[in-house]
Amino acid sequence: MRKLLPALLLILGLAAGAGAGWFLKPTPTPADEAAAHGAVPDEAGGHGEAPGGHGAESGGEGGHYDPATGPTETVRLPNQFVVPVIVEGRVQAMVVIGLALELEAGHTFSVQNDEARLRAVLLQLLFDHANIGGFNGLFTSGEALLSLRRILREAARRELGPQVTDVLITELLRQEN
């Protein structure tokens, strides 16, 4: 009986854990189901095929990432971005981030003419990201970086147009004070 009781408790514990996992699993959203079938939500909320050649992503925060297909050019922004992480009114850390733009071949982006305007937009976005805690915790996880790249890309597209296929994070450092 002494040998049977631990084995019985082990089996009972495994069954209870499996049952709890099955009952508590999250229900898939329409965006998750569409991503599983190779489609992504379009702006109207419907589902279209994943666009090729423009750095497509699925519609959720944790969606997959499809890099651009076709000819692209990468333009590295010459200076790094320095973003303070402020907690309770004091600078707790500094984040240094280097970015590069992936652009369609034959783009019209000029570092000399467009960089200052683009840097202002991206820097404001990075400040906002820091203010909501985006550089705290596991900020280097794949999902967190993908989310940051997604919002940087959308901001760059609003500023420069659809010739921007992606924004690449080339350097990332957090220095505590």
Strand content: 25-35%
The proportion of residues forming helix, as a percent range, comes to 25-40%
Largest sheet: 4 strands, antiparallel
As residue ranges, the low-confidence spans are 39-62
Shape: elongated
Ends apart, CA distance between termini: 60 Å
What is the residue-averaged pLDDT? 78
State the helix count. 4
What's the order of the H and E elements?
HHEEEEEHHE
What is the strand tally? 6
**What is the radius of gyration?**
22 Å
Structural class: alpha+beta
Tell me what the structure shows.
By secondary structure, the chain is α+β, with helices and mostly antiparallel strands. It is 38% helix and 26% strand. It contains 4 helices and 6 strands, in the order H-H-E-E-E-E-E-H-H-E. It has helices at residues 4-24, 30-36, 111-131, 142-160; strands at residues 39-41, 47-49, 72-76, 81-87, 90-104, 164-176. The strands form 2 sheets. Strands 3, 4, 5 and 6 form a 4-stranded antiparallel beta sheet that branches. Strands 1-2 form a two-stranded antiparallel sheet. The N and C termini lie far apart (60 Å).
List the SSEs and their pairings.
Layout: H1 4-24, H2 30-36, E1 39-41, E2 47-49, E3 72-76, E4 81-87, E5 90-104, H3 111-131, H4 142-160, E6 164-176
Antiparallel strand pairs: 1-2, 3-5, 4-5, 5-6
Helix pairs in contact: 3-4
